[in-house]
Amino acid sequence: RFTSAHELGHAIMHPESNGMHRDRALDGGPIKSKRNKIEKEADEFAKFYLMPRNLVIRRFESIFNTQDFKLDENTAFALDPSNKEKLLSKNISTRDISRILAKTEYYNGRYISSLAKQFEVSIEAMAIRLEELELIT
Fold this sequence. Notes:
single chain, about 5% strand, 2 strands
């Protein structure tokens, strides 16, 4: 879905490019140079199209009861009562927390559809969006 929305962004914003661009090198590996402006614009279009700010915030708040999630004793227990010590370890990064929240299907004693599933995007795409929206502290 993200790739399709990215390509739709090209079609809408960059019709002059005729859709001719490469996201991978000829050998199938990643392109080593920086992504150009039109690729970044197409990514932004896909992000806004698939994960609109207000909707993501509303759904995040309805699940986690906050717009400013902080991992602490209570939230770690709400995420995983049997494994809260691991969640509270010092080695966990903001991206790790974002990924956990993007894919969580259980919170505070209730089962839910994960944010990634609700928006039909990858866990990584949703994790990045949660960080951009500053929903995790």
